[in-house]
């Protein structure tokens, strides 16, 4: 038996695969699941194998996809179906352990360490059994990576996206992992990749063989973290199943109807997202102290900025104030009122969550009475929308750019592929 058994399971091309399972005729044509092209929610969320042959990429615009494959079939997303079957897959995982940690709608880590004795002692056989059960009972293929830590398990599941099964052990990890390019390592995004390559570090093995302090000198704490990851020293735990734990963050994102070029356009779109996030936080009796914005430009380059606040919040006006500060500090262009580049997609996220009823350290510089008034306003707006509909009450500023703000994140279920949130 292994001292530690961590499986990473990836529901291959999740949205497209579920559509093909429900409608088998879709397997015969190049097909993608994408947003509404007319309303510019037009990015490729998932693709099938035939579309992949045309080099169509997840996250690119439908316009770019059509240029590669003019006869491409675009299916509108059916998020309720995806959430239902994702949960059915994870219910199979939960029959083997209570430690099933979701990573998006299509991926999960599964800790089988304590399940070895109960299910026969062979961790490889247990993982294989889970994979085959998902296939035979639900008709869905899952690629799996089996390792002794979460980082290598995820690397393993990425090796083969068609019912792949890769084992990375303490004995073979140097042979399997070290030749891989640095960008394959979890938490190594585009900016970090460029910095590493500028220093002559091209593979995960190069990271592992570098001095930890040297990596820290130009990557900061991130350099130390990826050094541990590359050397197989990740000891992070797999969290309990989703219904037994607090979420790590709550956020919403949208692909705008047209590229956002001015500060006011971006601010108005973010305001709709912020109101949704604040409402969802209060629905779950949560508040958070780290506020992040994520933007993707019209060339599909991604940027993330965040700020930690002193007093955790779920009040929309307080979250929005931080979002505006982040936009002003990082995204303004040289021309007054304009952004530094056109942005296609944006999202906002609140993390480092805590129970809303937890103790708050009062501050002399914060008007607590005003905070409570703002929270009551938020709740009143939520109650009106829940009872009469989202359109029944809006802030006046949202009518200025109505074509950009006419959406309801809480109902539209805007879900981006995991790669959309790739780390920097």
From TrEMBL:
<feature type="site" description="Substrate discrimination">
    <location>
        <position position="15"/>
    </location>
</feature>
<keyword id="KW-0963">Cytoplasm</keyword>
<dbReference type="Pfam" id="PF00817">
    <property type="entry name" value="IMS"/>
</dbReference>
<feature type="binding site">
    <location>
        <position position="106"/>
    </location>
    <ligand>
        <name>Mg(2+)</name>
    </ligand>
</feature>
<keyword id="KW-0227">DNA damage</keyword>
<feature type="active site">
    <location>
        <position position="107"/>
    </location>
</feature>
<feature type="binding site">
    <location>
        <position position="10"/>
    </location>
    <ligand>
        <name>Mg(2+)</name>
    </ligand>
</feature>
<dbReference type="Pfam" id="PF11799">
    <property type="entry name" value="IMS_C"/>
</dbReference>
<keyword id="KW-0460">Magnesium</keyword>
<dbReference type="InterPro" id="IPR050116">
    <property type="entry name" value="DNA_polymerase-Y"/>
</dbReference>
<keyword id="KW-0238">DNA-binding</keyword>
<keyword id="KW-0515">Mutator protein</keyword>
<comment type="function">
    <text>Poorly processive, error-prone DNA polymerase involved in untargeted mutagenesis. Copies undamaged DNA at stalled replication forks, which arise in vivo from mismatched or misaligned primer ends. These misaligned primers can be extended by PolIV. Exhibits no 3'-5' exonuclease (proofreading) activity. May be involved in translesional synthesis, in conjunction with the beta clamp from PolIII.</text>
</comment>
<dbReference type="InterPro" id="IPR022880">
    <property type="entry name" value="DNApol_IV"/>
</dbReference>
<dbReference type="GO" id="GO:0009432">
    <property type="term" value="P:SOS response"/>
</dbReference>
<dbReference type="InterPro" id="IPR017961">
    <property type="entry name" value="DNA_pol_Y-fam_little_finger"/>
</dbReference>
<dbReference type="GO" id="GO:0006281">
    <property type="term" value="P:DNA repair"/>
</dbReference>
<dbReference type="InterPro" id="IPR043128">
    <property type="entry name" value="Rev_trsase/Diguanyl_cyclase"/>
</dbReference>
<dbReference type="GO" id="GO:0042276">
    <property type="term" value="P:error-prone translesion synthesis"/>
</dbReference>
<dbReference type="InterPro" id="IPR043502">
    <property type="entry name" value="DNA/RNA_pol_sf"/>
</dbReference>
<keyword id="KW-0479">Metal-binding</keyword>
<dbReference type="GO" id="GO:0006261">
    <property type="term" value="P:DNA-templated DNA replication"/>
</dbReference>
<keyword id="KW-0548">Nucleotidyltransferase</keyword>
<dbReference type="GO" id="GO:0000287">
    <property type="term" value="F:magnesium ion binding"/>
</dbReference>
<keyword id="KW-0808">Transferase</keyword>
<dbReference type="GO" id="GO:0005829">
    <property type="term" value="C:cytosol"/>
</dbReference>
<dbReference type="GO" id="GO:0003887">
    <property type="term" value="F:DNA-directed DNA polymerase activity"/>
</dbReference>
<feature type="domain" description="UmuC">
    <location>
        <begin position="6"/>
        <end position="189"/>
    </location>
</feature>
<keyword id="KW-0239">DNA-directed DNA polymerase</keyword>
<keyword id="KW-0235">DNA replication</keyword>
<comment type="subunit">
    <text>Monomer.</text>
</comment>
<comment type="similarity">
    <text>Belongs to the DNA polymerase type-Y family.</text>
</comment>
<keyword id="KW-0234">DNA repair</keyword>
<dbReference type="GO" id="GO:0003684">
    <property type="term" value="F:damaged DNA binding"/>
</dbReference>
<dbReference type="InterPro" id="IPR036775">
    <property type="entry name" value="DNA_pol_Y-fam_lit_finger_sf"/>
</dbReference>
<protein>
    <recommendedName>
        <fullName>DNA polymerase IV</fullName>
        <ecNumber>2.7.7.7</ecNumber>
    </recommendedName>
</protein>
<dbReference type="InterPro" id="IPR001126">
    <property type="entry name" value="UmuC"/>
</dbReference>
């Amino acid at each position: 038996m292994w001292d530690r058994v961590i499986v990473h399971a990836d529901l291959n091309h999740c949205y497209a695969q579920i559509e093909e399972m429900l409608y088998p005729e879709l397997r015969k044509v190049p097909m993608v699941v994408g947003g509404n092209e007319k309303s510019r929610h037009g990015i490729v969320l998932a693709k099938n194998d035939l579309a992949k042959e045309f080099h169509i990429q997840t996250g690119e615009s439908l316009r770019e996809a059509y240029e590669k494959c003019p006869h491409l079939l675009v299916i509108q997303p059916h998020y309720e179906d995806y959430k239902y079957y994702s949960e059915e897959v994870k219910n199979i995982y939960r029959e083997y352990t209570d430690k099933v940690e979701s990573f998006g709608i299509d991926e999960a880590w599964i800790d089988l360490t304590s399940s070895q004795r109960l299910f026969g002692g062979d961790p490889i056989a247990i993982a294989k059994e889970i994979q085959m059960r998902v296939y035979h009972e639900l008709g869905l293929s899952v690629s799996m990576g089996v390792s002794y830590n979460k980082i290598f398990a995820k690397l393993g599941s990425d090796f083969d996206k068609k019912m792949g099964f890769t084992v990375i052990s303490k004995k073979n990890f140097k042979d399997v992992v070290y030749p891989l390019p640095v960008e394959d390592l979890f938490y190594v995004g585009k900016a970090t990749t460029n910095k590493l390559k500028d220093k002559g570090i091209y593979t995960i093995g190069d990271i592992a063989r570098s001095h930890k302090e040297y990596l820290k000198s130009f990557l900061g704490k991130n350099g130390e973290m990826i050094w541990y990851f590359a050397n197989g020293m990740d000891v992070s735990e797999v969290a309990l199943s989703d219904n037994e734990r607090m979420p790590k963050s709550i956020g919403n994102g949208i692909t705008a109807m047209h590229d956002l070029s001015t500060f006011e356009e971006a601010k108005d779109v973010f305001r709709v997202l912020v109101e949704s996030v604040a409402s969802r936080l209060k629905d779950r009796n949560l508040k958070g102290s780290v506020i992040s914005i994520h933007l993707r430009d019209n060339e599909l380059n991604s940027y993330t900025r965040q700020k930690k606040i002193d007093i955790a919040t779920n009040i929309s006006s307080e979250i929005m104030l931080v979002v505006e500060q982040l936009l002003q500090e990082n995204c303004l262009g040289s021309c007054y009122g304009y952004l530094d580049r056109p942005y296609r997609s944006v999202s906002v996220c609140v993390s480092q969550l805590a129970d809303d009823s937890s103790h708050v350290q009062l501050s002399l510089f914060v008007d607590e009475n005003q905070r409570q008034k703002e929270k009551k306003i938020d709740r009143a707006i939520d109650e009106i929308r829940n009872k009469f509909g989202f359109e029944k009450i809006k802030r006046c500023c949202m009518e200025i750019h109505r074509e950009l703000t006419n959406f309801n994140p809480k109902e539209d279920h805007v879900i981006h592929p995991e790669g959309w949130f790739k780390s920097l």
